[in-house]
Structure prediction request, 343 residues.
Amino acid sequence: MASTHIIILNHRKRKRIRHLARKTHHKVVYRRCHIILQLAQGRPPAQIAAQWDCHVCTVYRMRQAFLHEGESSLRVKKSPGRPRKLNARQVQALDDTLACEPRALGQNFSNWSTRTLLQHLCLAVHAVTLLRYLWRLQWRWSRPLRRIASPDPRYAAKARYLRHLRRQARQQRIHLYYADEMDVALLPTLSGCWMRRGEQTQVFTPGQNVKQYVFGAVNYITGALVGLTWPNKNNVGFRQLLRQVLALHENATQPIVIVVDNFRIHAAKAVKAWLQRHRTQLRLYFLPTYAPRLNPIERVWRHFRRNVTDNYFFHTMTRLMRAVESFLSEMAESPDVILSIVA
Prediction:
């Protein structure tokens, strides 16, 4: 009766199966190979099942699979797993929906939640399942940043012209600078720093705050930094900055364009008179109102605060301004660092 279960193997098949049994590290593949080899030797299925500690039905199923699929039935196939709850079209719709504001899609609320997403997309899955898909799509729940919305009606036109100025600077038709002023106070600015768990770092503060100011301009192409400290934020200090920029390009044939914000000292009468005398060499371009993101020197100031004034009390204004001037000189000697910041 056992002869009806014999599998006929030629020499080549037998050799390949033995080779697979020797080389495999998978115990299921190893057992399958030896079951087929023993069936080929004429051993009864019950005896084979007892040797390999499995049910006799397993031997019969293995024999049937080998007869239908051949040697491929010996290898372990990857399980397809449970079918996905959402198909590719639904996943894409989920990604596209979350990228849009709810009110832009006609909803009467401002923020998406799992409940509103399920209702909007008519998905019949649990909220936790939806969260897993959102994590897989690289969406995270986090606090947004505030950004000033410029009320300037000509914002788009000014931003477009600013891109035109950058192209001219890259073509070496103009020298393009971004200028701004920064308050430097004895009161330390605060930012994140390393602290031992359970302890909070304390930063000393002055009894009375004192301020001075830094005027700066950065070349968009070369990374050259022009900076000076000044006791007051007035047009006198701004004109001194303009003189320093002009002195750098005394023999240049290309005009100088300095991009500034709409602070009142930039449009003072004394500044206009000075610009009129140097109109062939230098001119100002005013940014849209409330548009600090369009001025790359703001990133230079953040870098400056992180390295000088954040989390450190200098005790005296003299020590603070000495550190400010030292760091400005250090940055002026590193145009590559400046370019990496403003880019």
User: Anything to note?
Assistant: The longest helix spans residues 155-170. The beta strands are 175-185, 211-219, 225-230, 256-260, 282-286.
